[in-house]
Write a structure and sequence with these properties.
Elements: H1 3-11, H2 17-30, E1 34-37, H3 42-55, E2 58-60, E3 68-70, E4 84-86, H4 91-94, E5 99-100, H5 103-114, E6 122-130, E7 139-145, H6 148-157, E8 159-160, H7 162-171, E9 175-181, E10 202-206, E11 211-215, H8 220-223, H9 226-242, E12 245-247, E13 249-255, E14 261-267, H10 274-278, E15 288-293, E16 297-301, E17 307-310, E18 315-319, H11 329-336, E19 341-343, E20 346-348, E21 353-354, E22 366-367, E23 373-374, E24 388-392, E25 409-410, E26 413-417, E27 427-429, H12 433-441, E28 444-446, E29 458-460, H13 473-484, E30 493-497, H14 516-527, E31 534-535, E32 540-541, H15 556-563, H16 567-584, H17 590-602
Parallel strand pairs: 1-6, 3-19, 4-5, 4-10, 7-9, 9-11, 14-26, 26-30
Antiparallel strand pairs: 2-3, 6-7, 6-8, 10-11, 12-16, 13-14, 13-15, 16-17, 17-25, 18-24, 19-24, 20-21, 20-22, 22-23, 27-30, 28-29, 31-32
Helix pairs in contact: 1-2, 3-6, 12-13, 12-17, 16-17
The chain binds guanosine-5'-triphosphate, oxaloacetate ion and manganese (II) ion (MN).
Length: about 600
């Protein structure tokens, strides 16, 4: 018996066989120096943080309570989509948008990489639940990792710790096995680096087995395995099998001046405005917005036939640049409340954080995310474009009380949207569920810094889920159609929005941010039958005068340009949509292909 085995059996805070077997097998494979079962106490967090400060990974921030700064390796700054794999038994089940490797072959590769990969390090065992532990069918996970930075981040992002392990033991619950290593074993006496990682990276998912193996990266969506890997890729496969939806969506509660409440979920691709909309401060008098989630929504039918959404996460992992008092004051307040980790932002000389867009005036001197001196004359941004704040949901001053409800909130409207300079209007309502699924399936957006690769290229990002669907995209579309065809379903209305359309002089046609509340008002007016709208080839637009622009200081003409459905743009779009469906192959449902023909004829192009 190795040291680890003795240690594991004697000190494990659970007697659950499945859990012990899993942890033991990973310890045997990865050969860590010790095993630490994560409890989630304040004392544990303090000591982990102190260790990370000692190692140079974290710097305490003088200006923010219990908050830390981290700078990653410059080559480990975002999700790596080209190193992300869906290892289903059949290649066809991974579909055309995923990288597929045979599961047996991937397991062999991983076994080699993980063999001894935690040498000289501590292996942490993080018991967690996505959603609520007292939900009807709680979705548990155990992440083993050799990164204490991941532990501290996971304790913010998910409900985790000893109380979750106890609950799992009580229920003898199934759990998703999440295995993570930064891939940087330490030889005896070898010094560690502040951000250990490996140039070889594998973010591998086994959807049938419901397990995740992540190697080589310590960053965000690659390493906090409860988030994108579990709550979207694996959960989307579970949701397909169980008849629900796991989506890349924010959840927002809106209350009108008359006290009418509506719940909205919205899917925008990474770095396209979910966190901002989730924390919107309406500019229209009397309107109130409250936050339920900013990135992921799990939606299931309730007994009344409505779709109920829960946020499976417990924290925000928000894009820092562009977040400031004038754009997202609610997020700024959340950050001020402390208990946060900031990664790849810039440091001020007095021990605070800064990033582009936080303040209008730039500080005279900073330490940039690479650790270099920075002044306003510097050519490179001070914060990495994908720098992030990791903050507990409880810090959000606009948190809705329903956040504690394990069954979630009934969704009235689903919004799809992307970042498009042209073509896509500010807002349009789809005709019905199938048309909404069609519009979601052709969602398009310019790429952002949230993933490695070229930024600013238009690509299709169906339902904002392109990098996150754990199975064949065509089957995923069919699943959405099936949800709509569920007997007794009282479905949300589906809208499509674009805050990012530009004028000829390249300026934004719509001021965005808090002013998006005017678009939300029109949406609520549609839901409640107060706005009649006007029909276009692609959906229902606000009729002239229906969008409230009072006091906004923009002209009716500018609004008309933001809302315009231009036939010449749509002729080009249609061709691109046809190419897209061809590219996706024969799993695309006939019902959606039929939507393309109908759009073609509505555009007068048949
Ligand atoms: N012009 C404009 N920019 C916006 C608007 N909303 C958000 N942004 C900018 O878009 C960027 C990303 O916004 P987020 O709200 O963090 O995006 P997200 O969808 O939550 O991103 P992920 O966390 O990567 O999934 C930030 O730089 C924002 O300032 C808007 O209404 N108009
Ligand atoms: O997953 C991440 O690293 C951050 C995120 O929310 C996204 O990219 O959508
Ligand atoms: Mn996201």
């Amino acid at each position: 018996m190795t040291v680890v085995e003795t240690d594991l059996l004697s000190s494990a805070p659970t007697s659950n066989r499945r859990i012990l077997d899993f942890v033991q097998s990973i310890a045997t494979l990865t050969a860590p120096e010790r095993v630490h079962w994560v409890t989630g106490t304040a004392e544990e967090k303090r000591s982990l943080a102190a260790e990370l400060v000692e190692a140079g990974t974290l710097k305490p921030l003088a200006k923010k309570p219990n908050s830390y700064y981290a700078a990653s390796d410059p080559d480990d700054v975002a999700r790596v989509e080209d190193r992300t794999f869906i290892c289903s038994e059949r290649e066809e089940d991974a579909g055309p948008l995923n990288n597929w490797v045979d599961p047996g072959e991937m397991k062999r590769t991983l076994s080699e990489l993980f063999a001894g990969s935690m040498a000289g390090r501590t292996m942490y065992v993080i018991p967690f639940v996505m959603g609520h532990a007292d939900a009807k069918d709680p979705k548990f996970g155990i992440e083993v990792t050799d990164s204490p930075y991941v532990v501290l981040s996971m304790l913010i992002m998910a409900r985790a710790g000893q109380h979750i392990l106890d609950r799992m033991g009580e229920l003898d619950a199934e759990f998703v096995e999440c295995v993570h290593s930064v891939g940087a074993p330490l030889a005896p006496g070898e010094d560690d680096v502040p951000w250990p990682c490996n140039t070889t990276k594998y973010i591998s998912h086994f959807p049938e087995e419901r397990s995740i193996w992540s190697y080589g990266s310590g960053y965000g969506g690659n390493a906090l395995l409860g988030k994108k890997c579990y709550a979207l890729r694996i959960a989307s496969a579970i949701a397909r099998d169980e008849g629900w939806l796991a989506e890349h969506m924010l959840i927002l509660k809106l209350t009108s001046p008359e006290g009418e409440v509506k719940y909205v979920a919205a899917a925008f691709p990474s770095a396209c405005g979910k966190t901002n909309l989730a924390m919107i401060k309406p500019t229209l008098p009397g309107w109130k917005a409250e936050t339920l989630g900013d990135d992921i929504a799990w939606m299931r039918f309730g007994e009344d036939g409505r779709l109920y959404a829960v946020n499976p996460e417990a924290g925000l992992f928000g894009v820092a640049p562009g977040t400031g008092r004038h754009t997202n004051p609610v997020a700024m307040e959340a950050i001020e409340a402390g208990n946060s980790i900031f990664t790849n932002v810039a440091l001020t000389d007095d021990g605070d954080v800064w990033w582009e867009g936080m303040t209008e005036e730039e500080p005279a001197h900073l330490t940039d995310w690479r650790g270099d001196d920075w002044t306003p004359e510097s050519e490179r941004p001070a914060a990495h474009p994908n720098s992030r704040f990791c903050t507990p949901m409880e810090n959000v001053p606009t948190l809705a009380e329903e956040w504690q409800n394990p069954d979630g909130v009934p969704i009235d409207a689903i919004l799809f949207g992307g970042r498009r300079k042209t073509t896509m209007p500010l807002v349009t309502q789809t005709f019905d569920w199938a048309h909404g699924v069609f519009m979601g399936s052709v969602l398009s957006s310019e790429t952002t810094a949230a993933a490695t690769g070229q930024v600013g290229v238009v690509r299709r990002d169906p339902m904002a889920m392109r990098p996150f669907i754990g199975y064949n995209v065509g089957d995923y579309f069919q699943h959405w159609l099936n949800i709509g065809a569920t007997r007794g379903a009282k479905l949300p209305a589906i809208f499509y929005v674009n805050w990012f359309r530009r004028a000829e002089d390249k300026s934004f046609l719509w001021p965005g941010f808090s002013e998006n509340s005017r678009v939300l008002k029109w949406i609520v007016d549609r839901l409640s039958g107060r706005a009649t709208g006007t029909e276009t080839a692609i959906g229902i637009s606000p009729a002239p005068g229906e969008l409230d622009i009072e006091g906004l200081g923009i002209t009716e003409e500018q609004v008309a340009n933001a809302l315009a459905v231009r036939p010449e743009e749509w002729a080009a779009e249609l061709e691109d949509i046809e190419d897209w469906y061809r590219e996706l192959g024969d799993h695309v449902p006939a019902e959606l292909k039929d939507q393309v023909s109908r759009l073609r004829s509505r555009l007068g192009l048949a």
